[in-house]
Design brief:
Layout lengths: L1 E10 L2 E10 L10 E4 L15 H6 L3 E4 L20 H14 L6 E6 L1 H12 L5 E7 L5 H12 L4 H13 L5 H14 L8 H12 L2 H6 L27 E5 L7 H10 L3 E5 L7 H4 L1 H14 L4
Parallel strand pairs: 3-4, 3-5, 5-6, 6-7, 7-8
Antiparallel strand pairs: 1-2, 2-4
Length: 304
C-alpha cells in the first residue's frame, strides 16, 4: 500500500510544501520506518523508488520525498543564492520526521548528495530518534570528491579531458559538446545500465525542468564544484555520528574510495561494503546484492 501528501515547511515568514510518498502504514507497522534521501542536489525521489522493495520484501515502511526546490515539492523562484544551504535541508528533514510522527524512531538511507545530507544531519543534529544510517555513494568532503573524479578523468583520452576543461574555463558548459562529454562520463561512472531505467530518466527530467538547486549548490556538472557546497567538508565532525552506519560504494563509482574513507575511519560504529559490479547507482546495476546488503544491515544490526 502507498499514500502521498504534502507537509507545510516554514522558512522564515514563508510556508513551502514538502511532497512525500509512503509505502506502508506508520500507525500499524511494527517495523521502524526508513526515509530515503535523494541526491543531486537537485534531483527528485523517482530514481530512489527501487528502494520500495524494503517494504515489499520485509514490511519496512519506506518514505520518499522531494527535497524543497525539486520535483513535486515547492520551488522557490527569486530566493537569494544563500537560501540553498545544507541547514535548509536538515530543517526540512526535521520537519518531515516531526510531521509524520516518527522523530523518535527512524532510519535514514541517503544516496549521493542525500548521503552527504544524512551524514551532516546525524553529526550536527545528533537526533535521538535516528537509530541506523546508510550512506550510499557519498563523499565526506567535496575536495576529496574532486580528487577522486579527477583520478577517473585521467583514465579518459586527453582530448576528452581538454574538451571538458575548455568549456569550464570559457563558461560554455551549456554547450552540447560539454553535455555530451558529461554523459559519456556518467554512463561509465554513474549508471552503466543501457538504456537508463525509467525512474532515473524521470529524475533527470525533473532536474531539467528547474536546475536551480544543482547549479546553485554544486555547479555546472560533477567535475567542478563552484556553488555553495564548494568548501563543504564534514570530516572534522563525523566522529559524532552515534548510530550504527553502513557505507556502500563501488570501485568505479564517481565517488571514489578516497572520498568515502574518512567515514570508515571516523564513525565509531561503521560497516563498509564495496559492490563490485556497479558504479553510482547499484539499485539499478546490482539490485540483488545491493538490497541484500541493506536488508542484512537493517535486520541484523542493533539500533542505537
Amino acid at each position: 500500500m502507498s499514500s502521498e501528501g504534502k507537509i507545510p515547511f516554514k522558512v522564515g515568514s514563508v510556508t513551502y510544501e514538502t511532497w512525500y510518498k509512503l509505502y506502508g502504514d506508520l500507525k500499524t507497522s511494527k517495523q521502524r520506518p526508513i526515509i530515503a534521501l535523494h541526491g543531486g542536489p537537485g534531483m527528485s525521489h523517482h530514481y530512489m523508488l527501487p528502494n520500495k522493495i524494503l517494504y515489499e520484501k520485509a514490511g519496512i515502511p519506506v518514505i520518499f520525498y522531494d527535497q524543497i526546490g525539486n520535483g513535486a515539492s515547492s520551488h522557490c523562484p527569486g530566493v537569494p543564492k544563500d537560501f540553498w544551504v545544507p541547514e535548509l535541508f536538515m530543517d526540512e528533514l526535521d520537519n518531515l520526521t516531526k510531521s509524520l510522527g516518527i522523530s523518535d524512531d527512524f532510519d535514514l538511507l541517503g544516496q549521493s548528495w542525500g548521503g552527504m545530507l544524512a551524514a551532516e544531519y546525524a553529526a550536527t543534529r545528533t537526533p535521538k530518534g535516528l537509530k541506523r544510517l546508510i550512506i550510499a555513494n557519498s563523499p565526506a568532503s567535496i575536495e576529496l570528491c574532486t580528487v577522486g573524479i579527477n583520478a577517473l578523468l585521467e583514465r579518459f583520452p586527453e582530448e576528452f579531458v581538454r574538451t571538458i576543461r575548455k568549456h569550464e574555463v570559457e563558461g560554455t558548459t551549456n554547450s552540447q559538446e560539454y553535455q555530451d562529454a558529461s554523459m559519456v562520463f556518467y554512463k561509465k561512472h554513474t549508471c552503466t545500465t543501457d538504456p537508463w531505467p525509467e525512474e532515473l530518466l524521470q529524475s533527470f527530467a525533473e532536474f531539467a525542468k528547474d536546475p536551480t538547486v544543482y547549479h546553485t549548490m554544486l555547479g555546472p556538472s560533477e567535475f567542478t564544484t563552484t556553488g555553495n557546497l564548494k568548501n563543504w567538508d564534514i570530516t572534522g565532525i563525523i566522529h559524532k555520528i552515534a548510530c550504527p552506519t553502513l557505507l556502500i560504494s563501488a570501485p568505479l563509482d564517481e565517488i571514489q574510495e578516497v572520498a568515502v574513507l574518512p567515514f570508515f575511519l571516523k564513525i565509531p560504529k561503521v560497516k563498509w561494503v564495496e559492490l563490485q559490479n556497479s558504479t553510482h547507482l547499484a539499485q539499478f546495476e546490482e539490485p540483488e546484492k545491493y538490497f541484500k546488503v541493506i536488508l542484512d544491515f537493517l535486520q541484523n544490526t542493533e539500533a542505537a
